[in-house]
């Protein structure tokens, strides 16, 4: 029996957050079976968080494994860091490696996941892939992204995704997101 990875395959681009928040997100990623998390510094990221031991590879693996045990997941998420390059450079590198089916940026002013997916499916030039959809999600710090960062995401064809009418903590937003992405019928061909 061959283990089957998660459907859809999820990659997260996560701005630096408070260390306790990062720990919770790592556990969620391990539980759910997220493919990768790429940490970066956004305009509102607090650089003093980079001195935390949470960035130690042993700490990261411990949090991921704890989540994997909880979710009975056997796929270890890949973790990447880029605390020096500009966001544009990070995105260009990502897009060289993976052809993402869907690109989202979490933003309270955005639209819902079903609306975004249905809109994309209705585009005559779009064809739902026969393979597992690749989802790329950008998540900001607690205070969110500044407007020019949102504009950058839009230039790279990210759709603004709103998960709730409430203001959510980052780790809660990640949990909401992963729960919504489990709705496989969203990704089936029309």
Automatic annotation (TrEMBL):
Cellular compartments per GO CC: cytoplasm
InterPro entries: Alpha/beta_knot_MTases, RsmE, RsmE_MTase_dom, tRNA_m1G_MTases_N
Keyword RNA-binding: no
Chief localisation class: cytoplasm
Compartments where located: Cytoplasm
Keywords for this protein: Cytoplasm, Methyltransferase, rRNA processing, S-adenosyl-L-methionine, Transferase
Alphabetized NCBIfam families for the sequence: RsmE family RNA methyltransferase
Cross-referenced PANTHER family: 16S RRNA (URACIL(1498)-N(3))-METHYLTRANSFERASE, RIBOSOMAL RNA SMALL SUBUNIT METHYLTRANSFERASE E
Function recorded in the entry: Specifically methylates the N3 position of the uracil ring of uridine 1498 (m3U1498) in 16S rRNA. Acts on the fully assembled 30S ribosomal subunit.
Protein name: 16S rRNA (uracil(1498)-N(3))-methyltransferase
Organism expressing this protein natively: Leptospira weilii serovar Topaz str. LT2116
């Amino acid at each position: 029996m061959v283990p089957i990875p998660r459907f859809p395959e999820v990659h997260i681009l996560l701005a630096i957050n408070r260390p306790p928040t990062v720990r919770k997100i790592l556990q969620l990623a391990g539980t759910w079976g997220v493919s990768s998390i790429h940490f970066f510094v956004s305009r509102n990221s607090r650089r003093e968080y980079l001195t935390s031991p949470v960035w130690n590879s042993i700490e990261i693996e411990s949090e991921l494994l704890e989540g994997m045990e909880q979710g009975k997941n056997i796929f270890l998420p890949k973790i990447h860091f880029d605390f020096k390059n500009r966001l544009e450079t990070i995105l260009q590198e990502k897009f060289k490696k993976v052809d993402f089916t869907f690109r989202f940026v979490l933003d309270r002013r955005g639209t819902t996941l079903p609306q975004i997916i249905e809109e994309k499916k209705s585009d005559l030039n779009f064809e739902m892939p026969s393979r597992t959809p690749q989802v790329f999600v950008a998540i900001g710090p607690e205070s969110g992204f500044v407007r020019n960062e949102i504009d950058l995401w839009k230039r790279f064809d990210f759709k603004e995704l709103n998960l709730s009418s409430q203001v959510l903590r980052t780790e809660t937003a990640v949990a909401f997101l992963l729960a919504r992405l489990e709705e496989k019928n969203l990704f089936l061909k029309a």
